[in-house]
Structures are given as structure tokens and as C-alpha cells.
């Protein structure tokens, strides 16, 4: 299915990933964190697995519809691929999430949360 996406706009519409450079960076990071994915033991390569996963996240496509877009994969296997990729993406993307220090959180806390000093994330 990836060959249908020609422009950054099409990629962004389908997956929420803004451009192919970022998409390729995510794929490269997965190859480092999960080198066993480099082996072609699956009917989908890493790029296709990442694409499928982000399409599910962005569009909330059913597994049945994903299996139509990726015809070499059964409905059940779509679910397995996405669950597995979510674990790997969590590991890969965790360092990209910045949690501010407690003092910074308290300085920027909306007034309506003044009675909830233990709040860290809204």
C-alpha cells in the first residue's frame, strides 16, 4: 500500500506522520531497537508494518479494512502486527516525550487546578 502514497500530504493524511523523512527516521530507529524485524520472516516489511500501525492510529480503520489494503495479511494477523508494533514504537519513541520538571509544571498550572497540587498531566 505504501507505493500509493506519493506525497508528504498523502502520508500525513493517511498516518498523521508529517513527511517521509520522519517516517524513514521512525523505521530506522525500529531497525536499531528491534533488529530481529530486519529479517523477512513476515509478509510485511518494517515500513509496511509502521504504515499499517499509524494508519490504524490516525484513521481507526478496522482490521478487516486494513486486511483489504494489505492483502497479504489476514484480519487476525493485522491485529497481531499492530499490537506488536505499538510495543516497539513505545520503546522507540519514549525518549521523544519530554516531561517538564515539577517546578515548571506548578508554574504553568491553570488556576482551576490550584486545589489539585499533585496534578502532573492535563
From TrEMBL:
It comes from Camponotus floridanus (Florida carpenter ant). InterPro entries: Transposase_HTH_dom. Signal peptide: none annotated. This is Transposase Helix-turn-helix domain-containing protein. Residues 44-94 form the Transposase Helix-turn-helix domain.
